[in-house]
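Ticket #4471: structure export looks truncated?
Reporter: QA, pipeline team
Priority: medium

Steps to reproduce: submit the single chain below to the structure queue and open the exported record.
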Amino acid sequence: MSVATYSEESWTGTAFASITLTGIAGGPPPGAVCAPQGSSPYGSTGSSSALTCDSIVHSSVTKLDDAGVVSVVEKMIKQRKDSIAQYEKAARQDLADKEKYEISVIEAYLPKQLSQAEVEAVVAEAIASTGAKSPADMGKVMGVVKPKLAGKADMGKVSAIVKSKLA
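Actual output as written to the record:
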């Protein structure tokens, strides 16, 4: 079982958070390079502010199960992808590269991603089981698909597949 420990510290009125991942599938992913917290080839990674208060319920330390860890890691990756888009738009390739490096490190903690064909098979099964016929039924299909694919596929891409199959 994975255990993530979340702790929150306050410094000059700004909340910083850190996450320690332990015991994920028996330890860090094969080939993972463990470095001191906050270090990377680009200096401080800013990982101390990666989590937001919605990851905890008014406590200083919360243990997360596997699904919680995957959710937090996915959120961290999404934030960095958004940052990359902004940095590239502002012609700051140095900062975009830093974010790309951080994504490559963080992605090692996610379960293996399913192929396009595997995702489409799950979507087809969900459409058949819900009897969905039109885009208006997309919510029903996503309700069935999301628990099956959480952490195993990009839900934005899954949503696009569901939409195209119901069109």
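Status: closed, not a bug. The export was complete when the record was re-opened. Leaving a note from the reviewer for reference: The chain has two domains: 3-109, 116-166.
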